[in-house]
Amino acid sequence: MKLLIAPIVAGLLAVPLTVPLAVPAAAEEAKIRWHQCQRDAEDTEGAELDQAGAECGELDVPLDYRRPDGRKITLSMSRLPATGDRIGTMLLNDGGPGGPGLGMPLRLRPAMREAGTRYDLIGLDPRFVGRSTPLDCKVPQAGWPWSAGSDRASFDRAARLQASMAARCTENAAEYLPHASTRETARDLDRVRSALGERKISYLGYSYGTYLGAVYAEMFPARVDRMVLDGPLDPATYGAGMLRNAGPVNEAALRAWATWAGARHSSYGLGRTADEVLRTVRSIQRVAAERGLRVGEHTLDDGVVPVLLFASLGDDRDPARAHLAGTVRTLLAATRGPVEAGEELAGLLALLLTPALSQMVSGQLAIACADRAVSRDLRTYWRDIQRHRQDEPVFGSLTRAPSPCAFWPTAPKEQPTRVDTKVPALIVAADGDPRTPYANAAQLQRALRGSSVLTVTDARKHGLFGEYGNDCVDSSVVAYLASGDLPARPVVCARS
């Protein structure tokens, strides 16, 4: 998952929670109902989990932890049991926010090598995500993040889109919205720990999952064993505006890609130098703003074109760069008239511009808007974008645009979590990560005192362990998971 989709500026104060959240003794006795994972013939993920020896289960937890004996929701999870010398249980989170986790043990068990067999791996769909009492606002397209475009008219158009998404969540999911926060999800994690009969749990989280892990560590410090946080967020600034400072690193990632594409002009025809390729991108943006680009059945304006570019910049390996080059080549052709999309681009457009991602985006919105309030004054976003037109010409209008949280019907019911604890973790970060700027690693390390940072240099990849093919990263994480000993000094890995 690891999308990390959330673009807006934080503002209004949250409403503090004054009701104690003590867990009654009866809640500690809740049981997980285990069974096979495959639900029907089309459930390939469930079939793969069953084949791997996993089981799936449900646990009922309070919708509102202020009312622990009130209405319940259901958490769904998978468990891939340890087969070696067991260390304990590890919960997994794939980010998002709002990313499902049920199938994560299938991916992480091989990545963890010799340590993988020593943990019961728990792939949890967080509340309102995947199989866990899913929330769906029934939005007609992904729509978030969405670029505010090149002028005031496109800004207003983007704001109307965000307002309409908030209205759909109000109409279709209002009962769940106040209860979607990360703090409530952290309480869910601790209910899972208790139901599993574990005194402590280990945790591995990517992207937004690093924030969830940090919040859990702050709220339940005595219940954490080993923790890996990959693609770190700064817990002090996390919220619907968490991409606001990501414009510069995405502009840098775009230039790095343009250098790559320029060296392959004979294949893609986008320009022979980085500057020429970037001029091609700007010309595409200009035509999209002026009259739109007809690609297949879709007309792409300056709200969607930056989203297409952004979507491929979270990975600096050749396949991802080639995908982006193919996308830009198609968009360039569309500046001269209607074109058909290739299979990959057609699939991406179908995801972005149809209801296909409605449930996933709904979960993201609910979590981000429940965690931290934002400014509802559209003038603040417009002025912010205008100030950064020159230094963030492609992505400033995307990362600084208003989100549906500016129109949200409910205020957060708790203050954002201030993370300041001695719980240590292994923090894994790329120094050019386009989703979570590298400075976040130092901020998270200060919040989780005693933690250690593993840095991959000259890398522009979001999500590293088990994904980037970097043996230095993978070996370091596996060694920590096996021993429980953090590196004595910061680890620096060269890009593969």
UniProtKB/TrEMBL annotation:
Pfam families given in the database record: Abhydrolase_1, Abhydrolase_4
InterPro entries attached to this UniProt entry: AB_hydrolase_1, AB_hydrolase_fold, Pept_S33_TAP-like_C, Serine_prot/Carboxylest_S33
Matching SUPFAM superfamilies: alpha/beta-Hydrolases
Domain annotation Peptidase S33 tripeptidyl aminopeptidase-like C-terminal: ranges: 400-493
Gene3D superfamilies: alpha/beta hydrolase
UniProt GO molecular function: hydrolase activity
Keyword Hydrolase: yes
Keywords tagged on the record: Hydrolase, Signal
Domain AB hydrolase-1 residues, every copy: 89-236
Bilayer-spanning residue ranges: none
Signal sequence, renumbered to the chain: 1-21
Iron-sulfur among keywords: no
PANTHER family: 2-SUCCINYL-6-HYDROXY-2,4-CYCLOHEXADIENE-1-CARBOXYLATE SYNTHASE (PTHR43248), TRIPEPTIDYL AMINOPEPTIDASE (PTHR43248:SF29)
Protein family per UniProt: Belongs to the peptidase S33 family.
Protein name: Alpha/beta hydrolase family protein
Protein's organism: Kribbella amoyensis
